Amino acid sequence: MFFFVNYIIGQDTISSQPTSCGCCPSPYCQAKSTPCSTNSDCECLMMAMTGGGMCTDTVMSCKDLVPCQNDNKTCSAANTGTCQPLGNSFFCLCPSTHFGPVCEYRGTGTDLTVLETILNGSLTNYDQTVENVLNRSNWTNMVAVVDVTGSMQPCAAAVYKWLKLAYDKLNSIKYYVFFNDGDNKADSLKVIGSTGGIYGIPTTNLNTTLAVMQAAMKNGNGGDGPENDIEAILFGIKQCPTCTNLIHIADNQVTPRDMILLSNVTLPVKVITCQLNSYPVNPDLINIASRTGGSIHTLQQDIINLSGIPVNGTIVIGSSTYRRTVNGYVQIA
């Protein structure tokens, strides 16, 4: 049995024999691990899916890792899912008959009719903010952090459609993070910084990207109003440290529960507001952009100088006016 462990992004994947793996249970570790990086914490481990090697962090103990099934490909008792690496663990891509992080539930999960009708072209009247913003921007080398809870299906579909049309642009979105605020976890169990329901995937294969997005949607629908936006943003930065742009496809109708973590964000966040409709832009989303040196983007506007506005200064977004205070932006009209 092999284990999925944390990728060290940017290191080369190399060919290796089973005996050169690092943190695997016996009898597979009969030889010394193979160095693959100047980082002394890294070793070359055998990959469960391919049999090749990957350079990975092995500081953690083997007992802290989560195993796949004996065939190294499936990850539920019913052998219905396919393992995909996710940080220090894994999640499952499930067949249509099951859903859940390890395909533990029988059924279809969250209804994805809206997503499917947008992707197949039969529904054209939906929120197209994402497509408009991405089409008029020249960002490259992006990590995209996408809220896929509840009514956010149209916005998630729009991101995927744009990626599919722009797939020949090699410097566009490099890594996707989809988050659903806890995989239907009880609201009382949601802890800031570790709520979960976060799914990440490099954009090297469009079909797999879509499957991961669908898995994130099926496995959780958000629950209470506040969501784990910053937790998901931090996950994206960690998984794609070479990405230079971070876009956050955010639900304007809800407030992040974990704004206290915002000081840990190391990239400017370009916030694309979805579900705006006739409502004003959520001040918390403006503050995410402002405090990270990022920007706010709506269907009609790109506001890029939020952090440069002085305290007590104002800005108009849509039909609403906001004032910058020492504690952030507040709506005043």
Features:
single chain; 333 residues; Rossmann fold; seven-stranded mixed beta sheet; 22% strand
Quick recap:
The chain is of the alpha/beta class and 333 residues long.
Question: What does this 3D model show about the protein?
Answer:
It is built from six helices and 16 strands. The protein is α/β, with parallel strands linked by helices. The chain has a domain at 114-331: Rossmann fold, CATH 3.40.50. α2 packs parallel to α3.
Layout of SSEs?
Layout: E1 42-46, E2 53-57, E3 82-86, E4 89-93, E5 98-99, E6 105-106, H1 113-119, H2 129-136, E7 142-147, H3 153-165, E8 173-179, E9 198-202, H4 206-219, H5 229-239, E10 245-251, E11 269-274, H6 283-291, E12 295-297, E13 302-303, E14 314-317, E15 320-325, E16 328-331
Parallel strand pairs: 7-8, 7-10, 10-11, 11-12
Antiparallel strand pairs: 1-2, 3-4, 5-6, 8-9, 12-13, 14-15, 15-16
Helix pairs in contact: 1-3, 2-3, 3-4
Level-1 CATH class name of the domain at 114-331: Alpha Beta
What is the fold-level CATH name, i.e. the topology of the domain at 114-331?
Rossmann fold
SSE class:
alpha/beta
Radius of gyration: 21 Å
Output mean pLDDT: 76
Outline type: globular
Please identify, by name, the CATH architecture of the domain at 114-331. Answer: 3-Layer(aba) Sandwich
Bin the strand percentage. Answer: 15-25%
Tell me the series of helices and strands, N- to C-terminal. EEEEEEHHEHEEHHEEHEEEEE
In total, the number of strands is 16
- Name the helicity range: 10-25%
Give me the side-by-side strand order of the main sheet.
Answer: 9-8-7-10-11-12-13
Distance between the termini: 60 Å
Q: What ranges have pLDDT less than 50 throughout 5 or more consecutive residues?
A: 1-37, 45-67
The major β-sheet equals: 7 strands, mixed
| Count of separate DSSP helical elements | 6
